[in-house]
Amino acid sequence: MEITGRLVADAAVRAVNADKNVTGFRVAVNRSFKSQGETKQETAFVDCTYWRTDAIAPYLTKGMLVHLHGFMTAEAWVSRDGEAMASLKFRTDEINMLTKSGKPDSDKPTQAGDRNKVMKPSKEFN
């Protein structure tokens, strides 16, 4: 499965156990459609995990456009109030960075016009 979207916040790393970390991030995936002759847009927010390395986390910043390969997983648990809860997550196997960081400080152009150039997809962390 593949999805393309923009990160809504910087990625965060959390420890799963003593020797394993996971990188978590959320992407916004937009979809345009026509309804009664009017073009509308819908946004889905997808929680993602990346288990291969946490070294990628500093590169995954708010506003960045990414193309992800992976699969959906379902999680079920019981809340503190005893309520049954469930969620879907996208378990990412491959991340292609399609744009530079969305942060103004890290996206400074080196020459006129560089700001709008798209980066080539990265395979460094896959």
UniProtKB/TrEMBL annotation:
PROSITE patterns: SSB. Residues 97-126 are annotated as: Disordered. The keyword Signal does not apply. Residues 102-126 have a biased composition (Basic and acidic residues). InterPro entries: NA-bd_OB-fold, Primosome_PriB/ssb, ssDNA-bd. One of its GO terms (molecular function) is DNA binding. Gene3D superfamilies: Nucleic acid-binding proteins. The keyword Transmembrane does not apply. Keywords: DNA-binding. It comes from the Bacteria. This is Single-stranded DNA-binding protein. The lineage of its organism: Bacteria, Pseudomonadati, Bacteroidota, Sphingobacteriia, Sphingobacteriales.
